[in-house]
């Protein structure tokens, strides 16, 4: 079983993060030889390195150049900083199963943005497809993101979906587009409801590191139920798992 790690982040306005990134000085954790801490700089990793990537929240038009081409948020042609977008940065350890959370107490994706894209790299820019998070009717809180590497270089980011197979079977949830379990936004705490709609993103790594070691966390996540990781984090159990239990 891989090491499990919980990373939590309050998203910031894009402009603030870009400023922080430029002057970033961070202590290197044990076993972490990757000196690149910006999501917008290319790097190669080996197992046990940290790897920095970002998740941007914005509306569809903000992710598209000339209304048609989806670019990485690192690409200045998008000028995300001038829009009302938000970004969260994470540095998970490569090949560990991590659960990322974005706390909803200061974050309301339905307000202006509603969609998210995971991204890293510049010359070798990778970005995920655009994923629906929330609008005024529905909020999706659970995601699985796969980071696919080849010889230590990030090649691809994509959302792994299970076709609503694990949607809790009750009327608080609906299956959107046959792919996401969604809860009514009006049931969320930041909209006067009782559910903590913080977003949880499970990470899995696939492919090979720069020494051609094969990443294993992918196979382990494949075998996990969509919500099962939440139960492994005792500090999250109250805020996330128990609210689902109320509905079971
Ligand atoms: C934007 O798209 C239009 C229509 O598709 C095209 O004519 C124009 O050349 C594009 N502009 C740029 C800067 O790519
Ligand atoms: C989000 O933050 C609030 C206030 O800081 C805290 O009470 C709550 O437990 C947090 N939720 C999660 C899922 O971390
Ligand atoms: C969302 O929008 C409402 C109303 O415009 C505002 O009161 C609230 O502060 C906003 N929330 C966030 C997290 O920006
Ligand atoms: C919210 O998103 C859902 C699913 O994409 C869509 O069916 C619905 O019309 C949207 N509601 C609003 C108010 O945009």
TrEMBL record:
Organism: Quillaja saponaria
Keyword Signal: yes
Single Gene Ontology MF annotation: metal ion binding
Domain of life of the source: Eukaryota
Coiled-coil regions listed in the entry: none
Protein name: CSL zinc finger protein
InterPro entries referenced in this protein's UniProt entry, alphabetically: DPH3/4-like
Lineage: Eukaryota, Viridiplantae, Streptophyta, Embryophyta, Tracheophyta
Signal peptide: 1-30
């Amino acid at each position: 079983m891989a090491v499990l790690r919980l990373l939590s982040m309050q998203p910031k306005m894009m402009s603030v993060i870009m400023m922080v990134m430029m002057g970033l000085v961070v202590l290197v954790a044990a076993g972490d030889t990757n000196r690149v801490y910006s999501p917008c700089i290319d790097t190669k990793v080996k197992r046990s390195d940290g790897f920095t990537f970002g998740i941007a929240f914005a509306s569809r038009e903000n992710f598209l150049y000339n209304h048609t081409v989806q670019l990485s948020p690192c690409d200045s042609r998008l000028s995300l900083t001038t829009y009302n977008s938000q970004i969260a940065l994470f540095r998970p350890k490569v090949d560990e199963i991590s659960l990322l959370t974005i706390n909803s107490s200061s974050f309301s994706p339905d307000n202006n943005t509603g969609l998210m894209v995971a991204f890293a790299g510049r010359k070798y820019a990778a970005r995920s497809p655009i994923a629906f998070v929330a609008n005024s009717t529905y909020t999706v809180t659970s995601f699985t993101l796969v980071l696919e590497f080849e010889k230590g270089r990030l090649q691809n980011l994509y959302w792994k979906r299970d076709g609503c197979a694990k949607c809790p079977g009750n009327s608080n949830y609906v299956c959107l587009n046959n792919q996401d379990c969604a809860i009514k936004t009006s049931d969320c705490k930041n909209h006067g409801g009782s559910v903590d709609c913080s977003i949880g993103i499970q990470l899995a790594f696939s492919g090979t590191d720069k020494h051609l070691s094969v990443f294993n966390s992918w196979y382990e996540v494949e075998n996990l139920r969509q919500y099962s990781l939440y139960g492994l984090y005792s500090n999250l159990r109250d805020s996330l798992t128990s609210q689902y239990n109320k509905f079971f």
